[in-house]
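I'll show a typical protein example:
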Amino acid sequence: MKFNGLGGVSGFTLMYLGIVLCFVGMVFGLVQYVQTKALPVHECMAKVSNTIWETCKTYLFTQGKFLAILWF
């Protein structure tokens, strides 16, 4: 199948281009994560960050249990 609006590009080409673009984005995100994780942080800020992380994790776990109950 060809997409005339995109200059006659085939569907397979678009699919592979999308996969490559996703991979590039994933590598970029990983590099940014590693660089951010390596930055120095004050002890108080680390405690606040950990509290936020634990709160979010608990909330998502609770929501997941609720959705699983609704689904079954």
In short: The longest helix spans residues 43-71. The chain is about 80% helix and 5% strand. The chain has a mean pLDDT of 94. Helices lie at 11-37, 43-71.
